Structure formats: C-alpha cells, structure tokens
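user: Here is a favour to ask of a fellow structure person. I have my own habits and do not want them to colour yours. Could you put it straight underneath, so I can go through it closely?

assistant:
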Amino acid sequence: MKYVLVTFRTADPNLPGSGYRYPKRYSADRVQSSGSGKVLYDFTKGFDANGEQECLVLVDDALADRFATDPDMRIITDDQATAWVAANLSVAAIPEYSVDEPLVAAVHARVAANMETAEDREFLDPDHDSPGVRRVNRTKEALFDVRGE
C-alpha cells in the first residue's frame, strides 16, 4: 500500500462552485476497490489562489505506480503522509479512545463482584494491545482505518 498525493483543480477558476477537474489517470472507482477506499481532503479550506487543492489516497502499489505517472499525482512516504494529515486535516473530532462497551461492562461487573482478573486489567488499559479500551491513533492510520502499519 502506498500513499498518493493528488492535486485537483476547480473546473473553472472564474466560476465558484463549477465542480472539480481531477487528473486524467485518477479513478475514484479504482481508489474504492484498491486500498482503503477513502479520500482525505479538507473542503473547509477551498481551493488556493491557483484553483488547486490536494487530497490524499491510500491504494495498492500497482495503482499507486500507475497514478504516479501523472504529473498531478505523486507517491509520498509514510512520514510525508503523516505531515500532510497534520497540516491539512483537523483530527480533534476523532475520539481519543475506542471502547468495546459490552466487554467493558462485563469487566466492570467482575470488578464489582471482586472477581477481576489480570486479563480484565489489560482490557481496561488503553495502551495494551487488547480489546476493551484502546487509545485511538488520531492520524492517517485512524482516518484510513489501517491496522498494524
């Protein structure tokens, strides 16, 4: 899987709301079927003075390599993708923790009954790699729903 930074343009810079013009090799259908199926961009920023905006996609290597032959699309590194997300998207709305409520309720019941186990303590530890309460990675991995990167 590779990250591809895509530059798209307003269809007509002199006519606000005129739609978008994507690079010729870009295919939304292929993005959906190859990779995460998600496109990250910030519509609140709008187009820059040149009528351009960027989006980030995560696709399989073969499609990324095809996309990269277009001058308006380029493969970027994992670190560059992290920096792009930090600079272009607000991740504040993503919860800091993910909670498996039925599991946590069962753990709380065992704690209340004084039957807590070591495994129960792991379930409640957000930094332990177990279900229950988990700290959410609020960067590109969370946004693309990438596991085990």
Summary: Residues 2-88 form one domain.
